[in-house]
Amino acid sequence: MDRDSRTRLSAFQGTILVSFLQGGATEKSLTGTETRHKSAERAGKILSRIAGRITKLAKRPLSPPQALAVGYGVLILAGTGLLMLPYATAAGESPRLIDAVFTATSAVCVTGLIVVDTPHFWSPFGHGVILALIQVGGLGYMTVATFIALLLRRRISLRERVVIHKAVGMLTQEGVIRFLKRVLLITAMVEGIATLILTLRFAVERPIGEAFFLGLFHAISAFNNAGFSLFSSNLAGYVADPVVNLTVAASVILGGIGYLVINELLEHRRKATPRRLSIHTRLVLGVTGGLLGVAFLLFLVMEWTNTSTLNPLGVSEWLLAAFFQAVTARTAGFHTIGIEFLRESTLFIFIVLMFIGASPGGTGGGIKTTTCGTILVALWRSLRGDREFNLMGRRLPQKVLNDAFILASLSFIFVVVMTLVLMLTEGYPYLFTLFEVTSAFGTVGLSAGAPGLQARGHILAISGVRIHST
């Protein structure tokens, strides 16, 4: 999805989320049946009002970005409604509206931030709803809708092709349906292989049915860079397990580099005389590899003497844990080391990684690796006094440079302003507040364990979570 469409989407989601700010606080004074009755009544009124607004928008002639925005709004609304059902929770009672809408939005935006304990608060039905929202949100609802249309042998109109082109982040509109089929095939292959490996691993200690669902849930969550887990401690219980670590990390990397890059690599390998990879693919792979290497080394250096993280582990476990954190810190939100125990210097490195995020066309957030790479090249060329900015033998247009600097600047301003707002409203220390905001901004889902950052603060952080995604 391009920047314009996601900006519109973020505004729509922000409107929905902020409308619940006042609703969550009043429920604290109610108990028992009165609480559930008031909650259900308020939920019905608010959802009805939002549905009415969506219906009015749908009746107007919508541009492709507006159509995407409305579609994602409908998806969040549907997810919220399903999670509000009594049998979506383990207790068999309707959850607070603010918890349902937050979880639905976090799943659709593949953010991974939570306000309740996912494995114990939600029932198997609720877990299924969350998993479906992650999958549709990661793929894009237009991708899923088009796939269903193709199964029904319905013709895809030109207008629908334009919307799909914007949704999947293609550079041109040529071969949209063919590329879409490739996206679905890549998703099925990666998630299928990861599910199989994780199922076999979890089956060693659990019944096969439970192991399969755990494998499926974590495979989809990993490839879509969502960070949702069905373990209360995330993957901390598998810090020394190479199968879980490497499978999840590989899925996260593939989802983060994007379908455009994966598709080009597959095409490149199939050709007898392959052409040189595009600048986009080379830049994505170069920046991604560089960030992984630097993050891996910095994590080792900063944490190897920390008795609450790496120090108690063996050498091989150090390397595995450092690699896993280096992979997931930018986009995914999984962790095998308690984030709340990390040193402040390590948290700052994580903040930088989360701000950069994944790659265009991928399932992660942030300003993107290509934006980061473009800015670094421009700065280096400027320091050398070059009048023209060349990247891998190609001259960079001034518009590309301007867009990169504008995006990074606006994103930085957004994070700073939101951090200031949360510090004023929540009263929590600067670094931890900045960490939570950047985690929401980059759709990562990591948390430094800020107990003072309640649902109100999380909503403020996540309300603009899609503004930056490009």
Short account of what is shown:
The protein is mainly α and 470 residues long. It contains 20 helices and two strands. Helix content is 66%, strand content 1%.
Mean pLDDT: 80
Question: How many alpha or pi helices?
Answer: 20
> What's the shape?
globular
**Unreliable segments of 5+ consecutive residues:** 1-33, 465-470
Multimerization state = single chain
What strand order characterises the main sheet?
Answer: 1-2
- Helix-strand string: HHHHHHHHHHHHHHHHHEEHHH
The rounded Rg comes to 22 Å
* Number of domain units: 2
Between the first and last Cα atoms, what is the distance in angstroms?
A: 7 Å
Helicity, as a percent range = 55-70%
Which structural class should the secondary elements be placed in?
Answer: mainly alpha
> How many strand elements?
2
Strand-residue proportion: under 5%
The main β sheet shows up as: 2 strands, antiparallel
Give a verbal description of the structure.
It is a single chain. The chain has helices spanning 3-18, 21-26, 32-59, 64-83, 97-108, 118-121, 124-139, 141-151, 158-168, 176-202, 208-223, 242-257, 259-270, 279-303, 315-328, 344-356, 369-383, 398-426, 430-441, 455-462; strands spanning 390-391, 394-395. With 470 residues, it is an all-alpha fold. The chain folds into 2 domains: 1-173, no CATH class; 276-470, no CATH class. The protein has a two-stranded antiparallel ribbon. The longest helix is centred in the last third of the chain and has 29 residues, at 398-426. It is globular, with a radius of gyration of 22 Å.
